[in-house]
Amino acid sequence: MRAPSLIVFDLDAACWMPEMYQLWGGGAPFKQLSTSPNNRLEDCRGTAVRLLADVAASFAEIHERHTSGEPIMAAVASRSDEPAWARECLRKFVVAPGISMMDVVTEDRCEIYKGSKKAHFAALQKKTSIPYCRMCFFDDDPYNIRDVATLGVHCFHTPHGVTAQIFARGVKACTDGGDAGTAVFE
């Protein structure tokens, strides 16, 4: 049996826009505008929060592979200014019929707080026992990509959100377990 792998996502500007801090005067509660992939939410002031690129399909793929028995899991490593809002969005963004982003990552694998992304990864490693070389990370911030790569994590820069192509490269890197500590910039 293959060793387990962990796919880790930043949230603001990697999975959705706008970033939570940009919802000044708005925020929770969020309302679902649709329940189809790449759906949108609306905050209490009517500002739309939308999933970027192929995020919904990426989360749906992880869910499908995990439920079919493949040892693959998802997690979140985010410094979002509004952790409660981010968790609400994770619960309300639907990535497949009846499946939310939170269903895929689970509350236990959501590291959402200020501080170093290295601290997020240390917590995830402790909770999952998955070695860094079996993890990949998607983030829009080049600093975070370089920093986390020093742990041995396969890191991928996502300046326009997680695309299908970059997602496939990340999953392959962590499931194959080779060349750990890479930082890929597109």
- State the CATH architecture: 3-Layer(aba) Sandwich
Distance between the termini: 33 Å
Indicate the low-confidence ranges by residue numbers: none
The strand order across the widest sheet is 9-6-1-10-11-12
Mean pLDDT: 92
CATH superfamily: HAD superfamily/HAD-like
Binned strand content: 15-25%
| Dominant shape | globular
Which CATH class applies here? Answer: Alpha Beta
- What is the CATH topology descriptor? Rossmann fold
Q: Helicity range of the residues?
A: 25-40%
Query: What about the largest sheet?
Result: 6 strands, parallel
Count of extended strands: 12
**What is the alpha-carbon Rg in Å?**
15 Å
The class by helix and strand makeup works out as alpha/beta
What is the N-to-C order of secondary-structure elements (H for helix, E for strand)?
Answer: EEEEEHEHEEHEHEHEHE
So how many helices?
Answer: 6
Structural domain count: 1
Organism: Chrysotila carterae (Marine alga)
GO molecular function, one term: acid phosphatase activity
Protein name: Magnesium-dependent phosphatase-1
